[in-house]
Amino acid sequence: MELTGKRIGFALTGSFCTFEEIMGPLQALVAAGATVYPIMSETAFRLDSRFGSASRWQATITAITGHDIIHSIDQAEPIGPNQLFDLVIVAPCTGNTLAKLANAITDTTATMAVKAHLRNGRPVLLFVSTNDGLGLNAKNIGVLLATRHIFFVPFGQDNPQQKPTSLVADSSLLLAAAEQAVVGQQLQPLLIQRKAK
Fold first, then answer.
1. Domain covering 7-122+141-152 in this structure, CATH number
2. pTM reported for the whole predicted model
3. Which of 7, 129, 139, 166 lies 20 to 30 Å from 190 when distance is taken between CA atoms?
4. Which residues of the chain have pLDDT under 50?
């Protein structure tokens, strides 16, 4: 599926260790001809971390996409009534965000963007990055797997010996997963074996 001309909302949540890895796929979406509008949860937008300052990430993301960042609930709410996007991607999607989406909690910019977009019956693609994907969040992943219009970038255990419940999606598959999600298909296989750390 061609992404040329598609309007994509790209939401980042607070898995800061994944931000650097996500920049390549973000650039690839733009290179594929999509118009990408960045969205950041409040935490992702304002917090500095050992993986980079908030201002650095804001500047990088704005430079890649060419658009201002949607970073508040009131900015995200019009996504639904104005039918702004063909696809919303949440990458990285933290365990906290997974839990909120699975339980219909809308109290961040990212969750509002997803809720507003889903009201139009349009696809959402999740890039899981959570230390408890095979722990308490396993049930939430199950709920979302069974939820219409929600798709996943294929994921696997990233460090099964030291972090046996941790799951992370494969960033090299994000573009292909987006192409499939736009037409309502899940990229397969969903469960993959990641390289052991």
1. 3.40.50.1950
2. 0.96
3. 7
4. none
